[in-house]
Design brief:
By secondary structure, the chain is of the alpha+beta class. It contains 15 helices and twelve strands. The two termini are 30 Å apart. Helix content is 52%, strand content 19%.
């Protein structure tokens, strides 16, 4: 056994009833709590951001193309989705291009009235996201040559208007001539994404219905929704598309369409930074206090070691070696406790949230091994550096005075 290890094992003992043993126990608890809180904070915020982004992108697609104009109303200016435009969008990073169109309307029942946006899609539309969030019913089947009256409504709209799968609803529209027109639709399915801002407004229908209501030709669309292959940078893809399409069209990312949601998510990063900084500071101060108290309590021992010929470097190694072990013990307990709580929440969803406020029904958790490793390594190195502060006190201890120190 090395001399430094042997001496440190006698100095750093949690079993003895003295001040240093109490301080060491407090330090272990503080380190464990600091690590666990930091792990939980990162897991929650990363999970929260990713799930909300997936909801927004799943609903509106990563990139949309529409006509370049100053029209800020729901009614869209149509454009032709022809072979020329299709060829410009036939690039390797684009997974799919889906023609769609929006039209504002009103649902009226015997006792309720509700404003909605009818979102028209065609037979090739990617229903993957809506299908994964289907509460009841099924996805309608559309064709090119026939208009379907089947629609998919959100659970929020269905609950407000007391509607169920199979019910007929009448939606009213106002034309350019200011005359109202009503169309009867049949509810084929009910979805619930948790994205309240969209669930309160959108109803999916056959794109041919929008074309008929607006008097559009067969190849006319309101906008194009573009999905990308995995691991493709959305901003770079959007820049490529923007400069590839005709000048009368413009492309938008999901962030540009819903900037308030993404800006709100970006603010969560600052919360994590503040939490991590506070935990590092609190646990770091506890570690410094622990080592300083042990050094002061063992002043006479340090004086004896110096009198026997030990230099300052050797004595610092004695104190730092055991301190690092205490640090690792605390970090181990913190990781077990923090990851354990994260896994408990991930698989049981015991802590609930209000979907109206947070877009999610429970606290999301996403554990990334890279984040865990980087957090532990960075935290360990920082706290070890902080240990050097009290260790420098050893240099100023005079053997002739410290041996008589009581």
């Amino acid at each position: 056994m090395k001399a430094t290890r042997f001496i440190s094992s006698r100095i750093f003992s949690m079993e003895k009833e003295n001040l240093s043993s109490v301080v060491m126990k407090i330090a272990v608890i503080s380190i464990a709590l600091g690590i666990s809180i930091m792990l939980i904070s990162i897991a929650v915020v990363v999970g929260f951001k990713n799930q909300i982004k997936d909801k927004v992108v799943g609903f509106v697609s990563p990139i949309q193309i529409q006509t370049l104009n100053q029209n800020e109303s729901i009614e869209e200016t149509p454009f032709v989705y022809d072979s020329t435009l299709k060829s410009k969008l036939s690039v390797h990073f684009i997974e799919g291009v889906y023609p769609t169109a929006n039209k504002a309307g009103l649902i009226k029942t015997d006792s309720e009235i509700h404003g909605i946006i009818l979102k028209g899609v065609d037979k090739d539309y990617n229903w993957g996201y809506i299908n994964s969030n289907l509460a009841s019913g099924e996805i309608p089947q559309y064709t090119d040559d026939k208009r379907s009256n089947d629609v998919v409504v959100s659970k929020i709209i269905a609950d407000k208007l007391l509607l169920n799968v199979g019910d007929d609803v009448r939606i009213w529209f106002v034309g350019d001539d200011m005359k109202t027109r009503g169309r009867k639709f049949t509810i084929k399915g009910i979805y619930e994404t948790g994205l309240t801002e969209c669930d309160e407004r959108f109803i999916y229908c056959d794109l041919n219905q929008i074309r008929r209501l607006n008097g559009w030709e067969k190849d006319y669309v309101g906008h194009l929704e573009i999905t990308l292959n995995d691991n493709i940078d959305v901003e770079e893809a959007n820049n490529y598309i923007y400069y590839s399409i005709p000048t009368y069209l413009i492309s938008y990312t999901a962030r540009e369409l819903y900037p308030h949601i993404f800006d709100w998510l970006d603010l969560q990063d600052m919360n994590v930074v503040i939490i991590i900084a506070l935990m590092l500071l609190v646990a770091g101060i506890t570690i410094i206090s622990m080592l300083l108290i042990i050094v002061l309590e063992r002043t006479s021992t340090i004086g004896i070691l110096k009198a026997l010929g030990a230099n300052n470097r050797f004595i610092r190694r004695v104190f730092l070696q055991r301190s690092r072990r205490i640090l690792l013990i605390g970090m181990l307990f913190g990781n077990v406790f923090g990851i354990g709580l994260c896994l408990l929440q991930k698989y049981t969803e015991i802590i609930k949230l209000s979907p109206e406020s947070y877009y999610l029904s429970s606290v999301p958790i996403e554990l990334d091994p890279t984040h865990i490793v980087l957090l532990n390594v960075g935290t360990f190195l920082l706290w070890v550096l902080m240990m050097l502060i009290p260790a420098m006190v050893i240099n100023n201890i005079n053997p002739s005075k410290s041996i008589r120190f009581e």
